[in-house]
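Reminder to self: tokens first, then the designed residues, so the page reads top to bottom the way the pipeline ran.
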């Protein structure tokens, strides 16, 4: 055997992301994995021959409170699922996934699945009988297969670790899933590099081969290449993008350029973007100014300055309105919340809306958006999402979120922070300054 072939063979034998090296006894490995799984669920230690990637995933699953006898839950159904899928950035490459993987899945009695960046299944297609079997464990569109929900599995673990991974039989954390084998690879946004989701092939033990992992990785790379060629979503063509979350001065992307708006102009753009039909001058006055003595002349002067900043044709009057679509990050968060896509809404939330603004309408919108999002987080009880909020600048003193986090993840650090917040809340107020 040539040195190059020996090197390839050694890489195959030591690749930690492949479930079974060529020539391995699948039946013996399965028995050993079952024993290891029982040991871990009983005493918390991970014996051999569990791969490090699987051992780490088991530990994350246990910390998230996943039980070995749990099951997946459906989070989105019917119209909500359809609306969320239609706007998802992986929707344009679904025809490519079907072209490259559809026949392989159907002929091999496998399933093609695509999830979002939080492990929620968006599409599950393939062999009809296999789909019926998968339905019994809720491996269906709209179900959450994140590690924090169902433990170790290829799509959920792929988005958790950000790289292709194969999960064989009893490597799955939940016993109900252990008859299955799957391989998944994350798909990244070619412009920002962020994980958009993962493409997965799920079926029987025959998928426990290096080729299946290489296959899904190649499909993911092909999808990224097509996304790069497609450019911005067609439904966003011609629309300006307004970013106002987590910043005091808005950024407006317009015709390929970026405009940084003043604080007052940012407030005006937020209000106009929400009212495409337009608003009157009196409505804008009430929405923007606490001081009732501010005159319409002041507002008209501010709008004239904004029109010069934006350039001709975008800001119309009588009533005041934007003459082309403006998509704001606020609208994205609201749309995802309405669809029940809490994790996706959190991902789009960059912080409080124009946090320094005191404009009455902006303050109301800021509070309503934050309250709606944190309420959904508390109701969802996902420890990872709660922890992300609690450790963000806007959530570090959020007592209700810390209480919810402590209920689902009672780690020492969480309990300590909660105790400190409760002590601050119950401490008597100091003397009033003279």
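Designed residues (434 positions):
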């Amino acid at each position: 055997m040539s040195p190059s072939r020996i090197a390839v063979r050694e890489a195959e034998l030591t690749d930690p992301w492949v479930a079974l090296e060529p020539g391995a006894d699948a039946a013996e490995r399965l028995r050993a994995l079952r024993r290891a799984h029982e040991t871990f669920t009983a005493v918390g230690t991970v014996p051999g021959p569990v791969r490090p990637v699987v051992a780490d995933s088991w530990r994350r699953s246990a910390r998230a409170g996943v039980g070995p006898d749990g099951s997946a839950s459906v989070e989105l159904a019917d119209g909500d699922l359809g609306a969320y899928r239609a706007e998802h950035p992986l929707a344009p490459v679904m025809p490519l996934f079907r072209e490259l993987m559809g026949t392989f899945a159907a002929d091999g009695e496998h399933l093609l699945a695509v999830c979002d960046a939080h492990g929620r299944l968006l599409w599950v297609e393939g062999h009809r009988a296999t789909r019926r079997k998968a339905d019994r464990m809720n491996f269906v569109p709209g179900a959450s297969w994140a590690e924090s929900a169902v433990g170790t599995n290829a799509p959920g673990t792929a988005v958790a670790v950000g790289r292709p991974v194969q999960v064989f039989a009893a490597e799955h954390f939940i016993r109900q899933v252990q008859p299955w084998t799957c391989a998944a690879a994350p798909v990244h946004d070619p412009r920002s590099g962020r994980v958009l989701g993962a493409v997965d092939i799920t079926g029987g033990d025959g998928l426990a081969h290096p080729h299946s992992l290489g296959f899904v990785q190649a499909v993911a790379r092909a999808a990224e290449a097509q996304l790069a060629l497609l450019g911005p979503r067609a439904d966003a063509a011609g629309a300006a993008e307004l970013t106002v979350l987590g910043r005091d001065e808005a950024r407006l992307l317009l015709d390929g350029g970026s405009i940084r708006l003043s604080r007052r102009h940012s407030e005006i753009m937020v209000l106009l973007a929400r009212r495409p039909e337009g608003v009157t001058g009196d409505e804008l006055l009430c929405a923007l100014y606490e001081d009732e003595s501010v005159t319409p002349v002041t507002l008209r002067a501010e709008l004239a300055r904004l029109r010069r900043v934006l350039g001709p044709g975008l800001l119309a009057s009588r009533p005041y309105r934007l003459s082309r679509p403006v998509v704001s990050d606020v609208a994205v968060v609201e749309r995802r919340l309405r669809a029940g896509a809490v994790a996706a809404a959190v991902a789009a939330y960059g912080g409080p809306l124009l946090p320094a603004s005191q404009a009455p309408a902006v303050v109301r919108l800021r509070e309503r958006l934050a309250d709606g999002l944190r309420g959904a987080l508390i109701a969802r009880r996902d420890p990872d999402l709660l922890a992300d909020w609690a450790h963000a600048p806007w959530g570090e003193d959020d007592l209700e979120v810390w209480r919810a986090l402590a209920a689902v993840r009672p780690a020492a650090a969480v309990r300590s922070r909660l105790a400190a917040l409760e002590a601050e809340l119950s401490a008597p107020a100091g003397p009033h300054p003279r």
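Residues 152 and 172 are 5 Å apart (CA to CA).
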